[in-house]
């Protein structure tokens, strides 16, 4: 289905011919998801790019510490973390239409006022935000782009990490997780090399209790792929 966005979209200058870190995805939606998208998008959604920058305080109706989640999938993790953390606002960024619709439905069912959903490129969105403005950035199970020729598309690489770190306030948290062992090690090396980040653990973090176990993670564990978490603070 198609839908009209009544909210202001957002845009920012970005390098010409920028390499995307994601596959644009649409996919089929259930009737429930289609209804949620049509009915709830005006209250909870925005698109990246196409118009003027937005004000998070205006978007959420209050001023509160802001968490950006890059790639919220079907929204399970976003909803559970936001419900347990009502004093912070969560802006989930996703490109998979059924996932966006499912998250909207979950937010409505749980009655959460501290979640909004952005459709588009998370890196473009982050360029719109001022430096030092985020309490946390979450990147849970980003595409590992396993083929060597595709590593340039990975989210966690030096130039992208510099952007993520610059948007964090001092003491803000960058939390990454992956079930791809080679990518996990690459993430650790890249994040350790950023001079503005400090690893909160000696290498990989023990699994944080506050990050819910999702269906995706259960499938990974069943397939024998252990999950690695990485937790960093901005200096």
UniProtKB/TrEMBL annotation:
Binding locations of substrate: 147, 179, 214-217
Enzyme's top EC category: transferase
Reactions performed catalytically: guanosine(46) in tRNA + S-adenosyl-L-methionine = N(7)-methylguanosine(46) in tRNA + S-adenosyl-L-homocysteine
Keywords attached to this entry: Methyltransferase, S-adenosyl-L-methionine, Transferase, tRNA processing
Pfam family, one: Methyltransf_4
Superkingdom of origin organism: Bacteria
GO cellular component, one term: tRNA methyltransferase complex
Gene3D superfamilies (UniProt xref): Vaccinia Virus protein VP39
EC number(s) recorded for this UniProt protein: 2.1.1.33
Protein name: tRNA (guanine-N(7)-)-methyltransferase
Organism name: Micromonospora craterilacus
Species lineage: Bacteria, Bacillati, Actinomycetota, Actinomycetes, Micromonosporales
Recorded name of the encoding gene: trmB
